[in-house]
Amino acid sequence: MKWDITHRTHYQYSSPVRSSNNEVRLEPVSNEEQTVELFDLRVTPESRIGHYHDFYSNDVHHFEIPEPHSELLIESHSIVNTHGLSGLATDTRPASRSLLRDVMKIGRCYDFMQATQFVDTDPETWRLALDIVHDEDDVWQCALRLMAFVREHLTYQSNSTSVHTHMREVLAARHGVCQDFAHVLLGLCRSLKIPALYVSGYLATEKASATHAWVEVIVPGHRWQGLDPTHNCVTNETYVKLAVGRDYADVSPVRGTYKGATESTLNVEVKIKKIESE
Questions:
Q1: What is the residue extent of each domain of the chain?
Q2: Burial 238-248 (b: 16+ CB within 10 A, else e)
């Protein structure tokens, strides 16, 4: 499937600000699952845009606006072709949990088995995860059970949390948004030593109005597999990946600092259109 995606982030400040330093992770990933055919990033006020790859190989663009300005507009335009690789079927039973001891030999898995700023692997989380999987020994089936629990236990509620909400708060309140669902699933998986990473991207539907978040888990003998706990489903060609990390703090689409006004308004608009094949 081919997708045309426009992402606009608009800041307005109560008084002019200066020395604005920003980095964005808005360029979709190019890999075996998807191919980026076009990416264009524009900033107003105009600024020279630099680029680098972070520790997790995400594309990061950065820019500085030293002069005073009352608003900032960041707009990206992408055309992405998702390839719809066949993943593991929900009834697949490919690997015993005993094989997880070998995943540490796979590059970078260590980072995705640890507690982080928004995710914990405390004894309480471990006991909850054990109760959920019960006597299941298969890694994939365990991950599916954990995902189903998150979807059943939590209620999606817009604007009910912030980008700084920890998974413990989400479990206690039993509501949140997509990033909260992802953080809870990360904690449950990691507490059982299942490597799990946070994914920022888009769920490519006509109703999309913001970025989406989901999780990927490693299954011994197979590639990383995408799970969307918000919708309790395995990811497919309607998911477009922007960046991966340990949790939201690693992959926020826009991050920056500035000097000046403490009050500002933020408006984010995402438009996604399917490009029909000729």
A1: 2-83+252-275, 97-251
A2: bbbbbbbbbbb
